[in-house]
Amino acid sequence: MDETPPTEILDATHRSLCTHGYANLTLEKIAAETETSKSLIYYHYETKQELFSAFLDYLFDQYTTRLSNVDGQTPPHELDILLKTVLSPDDSETSLQRALIELTIQSQHDDHIQSKLTDFETALVDRLQEIIEAGVESGVFDPEMEPDVTAEFLATAIMGAHTRQTASDCSADQLYGTLVDYIESHLVVAEAVEA
């Protein structure tokens, strides 16, 4: 029996979801992406729900790894790198955004998917809040700002930017520039901008 690794099946699920959308996604199309059989997918995953659960976990691990690998010399630098990371137009990020938008649409009808997607949002908000709190503690971000509220706002702007990039090919550079302007005018204290 062909032992196609589960990772290859998950990658094929990702490609197939981006190509066909959730509504037109079938196990046959996923199998075609791996040049294997539908029965082999069932060998690794007993149900389509189990496959999608594993797929979302797989995407989540990739996403949180990217977020945790963001490291800067100062909180503003780290926030800048995070924005570049999540707004970058490279193929892997664009593909991730497309897959998440497809799943977001489906999540209106599937509580399991909705719950998993909430984990993505929470991871982004938590990482943003961590950076913002470090900036407040180090004196480079406005101490009057509420890190949790600001993190929620930035996460909402980032998720909106993902939708615009995917749905209308809006420029990532423009969206990035707008968020940087916001950070410099609302988060960074005046002395830190002048330094």
Automatic annotation (TrEMBL):
The keyword Transcription regulation belongs to this UniProt entry's keyword annotation: yes
Keyword Transcription: yes
Organism this protein belongs to: Halohasta litorea
Residue ranges of every copy of the HTH tetR-type domain listed in the record: 3-63
GO molecular function, one term: DNA binding
Record keywords, A-Z: DNA-binding, Repressor, Transcription, Transcription regulation
Protein name according to UniProt: TetR/AcrR family transcriptional regulator
SUPFAM superfamilies from the UniProt entry: Homeodomain-like, Tetracyclin repressor-like, C-terminal domain
Origin: domain of life: Archaea
Pfam families per the UniProt record, alphabetical: TetR_C_6, TetR_N
